[in-house]
User: Which sequence fits this backbone?
């Protein structure tokens, strides 16, 4: 599995938090810790790819809002799942929806899963 993320030229961190969260979910789904499987750089003669590696590639350029692709590759085929954000408006809409959801709840600490739960 590899995760490729692409953001605007001014983004300072790499890989992005979203890419790291995707990697954590993949590692957890496989019963591993991400720290034991993550590979953040491949350059030169690094040898064959290790079993169960989760590779990360971070691209920066232009005004790209955000793009994340998770690639599952095996001999003879690959599956790629991509999300492209073309406007920052979607993040603002999500923040507003979460604020409205919170305004209708009792005051307490909520976790992200509770906010996103469809039955909430």
Assistant:
């Amino acid at each position: 599995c590899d995760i490729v993320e692409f953001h605007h030229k001014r983004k300072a961190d790499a890989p992005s938090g979203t890419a790291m969260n995707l990697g954590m979910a993949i590692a957890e789904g496989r019963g591993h810790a991400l720290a034991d499987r993550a590979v953040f750089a491949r350059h030169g003669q690094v040898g064959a790819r290790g079993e169960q590696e989760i590779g990360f590639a971070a691209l920066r350029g232009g005004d790209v809002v955000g793009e994340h692709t998770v690639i599952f590759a095996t001999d003879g085929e690959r599956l790629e799942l991509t999300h492209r954000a073309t406007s920052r408006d979607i993040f603002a809409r999500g923040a507003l929806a979460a604020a409205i959801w919170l305004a209708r709840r009792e005051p307490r600490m909520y976790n992200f899963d509770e906010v996103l739960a469809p039955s909430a």
About this structure: The first helix runs from residue 17 to 29.
